[in-house]
Amino acid sequence: MSPNSSSPSSTSPLHLPLLSPSGGKESIEDEELEDHAAFSESQRISVKVDDDVEKAGAATDGGRNDEDRVPPFSWRKLWLFTGPGFLMSIAFLDPGNLEGDLQAGAVAGYSLMWLLTWATAVGLIIQLLSARLGVATGSHLAEMVRREYPRWASYILWVMAEIALIGADIQEVIGSAIAIRILSNGLLPLWFGVLITAADCFILLLMENYGVRKLEAFFGVLITIMAISFAWMFGEARPSGKDLLLGVLVPRLTSSTIKQAVGIVGCIIMPHNVFLHSALVQSRNIDKTRKADVREALSYYSIESSVALFVTLLINLFVTAVFAKGFYGSKDAKNIGLMNAAEYLDREYGYLFPVRYIWAIGLLAAGQSSTMTGTYAGQFVMSGFLDLHMKKWIRAAVTRSFAIVPTIIVTLVFDSSENQLDVLNEWLNVLQSVQIPFALVPLLCLVSKKHLMGVLRIGNFLKLFSWAMTLFIMAINGYLLVDFFRTEALTIGTMSFLSVIAVSYITFICYLAFREIP
């Protein structure tokens, strides 16, 4: 069958015309198209494999070239699709996650490993929905929100996404700065480490110039460094294999570990990562007019993302187990944080191997990789929500300054106070928690719409499960907020102000959900 004979019309659910903010079709000049799209045509990787694999698949089907028939599995094609999932997975290994891991291990021992495992599985489902949106529509989440929601609502969601990015970036940059200070034996202050980390956006742009595959390989190296560092720590610490296995398989939760449990769930789902994954899948050149190609792409992305998040799960379990073995039940367990973790590790394991430097190397790789992907996500968020056409280096510089300027201020103020930095991290975790619905609710609404998703619209079971998980995550984070503010000495005026904010917050989320349900 010829390509023309199976091409759908412009109203096909798998083919979307380019829309302007007003909703009409627009014509974009060739030189402007590169900045509008997540990836220009020259940057996208061809995944068409003209080898004997597809020919053999056609032969087994009577020689038919049916557009609904997905070709047989190909390791070569899987390799071509490998990359976006590993970039996405870095958000599961950022310094905030590492801090949650070490606190869970020190305070709860091995007992919360099952929750870490299940939270990662839920995170995988959410990320696959994001990838599904990108594959089916050819647009990323920020672009789809701008097209499908009223302008005032999309502007609010853009502001919320930028706030979430800033909060996440502060934690990630500070994590890198802490690692740099450890590796310099305390000679370099935090603020200087922040300035060094700020240069990563230019490294990102440089790597982009060498192609998407080079960029993905660079992040793969960083993930490998993390895996080797934390696996080395795990091997030297030699945690109990039996206790580790029971922690993964047997659910246990006590009143004394609820805070750590909430922290684990809150760290897994990052709002900016939901936006990022739907854009990263645009780096592969897929014929979206053919159902088989779209389904095939989604299956390969699902395999790749599953492998990537399994690797992140192992790394997170390594960190949790090391701190569970060394500090669970000790008097210092509740005092360990990202700022002083190296000192405690050195005190516990330093006689065996140079643990503080191995920890610092892994932490530096986590911080650098997550800040770079945060910058990447910021570019897509800004261009998608605002439909801006600007040079990439300008957009990257603007996005980077949003986080670096407040981070420098934070490190100058809190450089000498570990306790104040711990309080700041609590506030930043609260900030991330309240932002999660602004990414998840629009995503679930959009992937449920037949006129956008076509055959990739999620079914009733997946829709019900996804909404249940979203409500559960919102409930967990709601508990975190209530518990956090309950410990603060708030005045009546402050309570009244927070009540107004809470009502507005809930009302807007309900609007996002019920307006877009098909």
Name of the top-level CATH class: Mainly Alpha
Count structural domains.
Answer: 1
CATH architecture: Orthogonal Bundle
| Strands ordered across the widest β-sheet | 1-2
Biggest beta sheet attributes: 2 strands, parallel
Q: What are the secondary-structure elements, in order, as H or E?
A: HEHHHHHHHHHHHHHEHHHHHHHHH
Low-pLDDT regions: 1-36, 55-64
Whole-number radius of gyration? 23 Å
Quickly give the structural class.
mainly alpha
Q: What percentage of residues falls in helices of 4 or more residues?
A: over 70%
Shape: globular
Task: Give a nutshell description of this structure.
With about 525 residues, this protein is mainly α. The chain has helices at about 30-35, 50-60, 75-80, 85-90, 95-110, 115-135, 140-150, 150-185, 190-200, 200-210, 210-235, 240-250, 260-270, 270-280, 290-325, 340-350, 355-385, 390-415, 420-435, 435-445, 450-455, 460-485, 490-515; strands at about 45, 285.
Structure description:
The protein is built from 23 helices and two strands. The model is unreliable at 1-36 and 55-64 (pLDDT under 50). Helix 10 packs across helix 11, helix 11 packs parallel to helix 15 (291-327) and helix 14 crosses helix 17. It has helices at 30-36, 52-60, 75-81, 84-89, 95-108, 113-137, 141-148, 151-183, 190-198, 200-209, 212-237, 241-249, 258-268, 271-280, 291-327, 341-349, 355-386, 392-414, 418-435, 437-446, 450-453, 460-486, 492-516, and strands at residues 45-46, 284-285. By secondary structure, it is mostly helical. The longest helix is centred in the middle third of the chain and has 37 residues, at 291-327. Strands 1-2 form a two-stranded parallel ribbon. The chain is globular, with a radius of gyration of 23 Å.
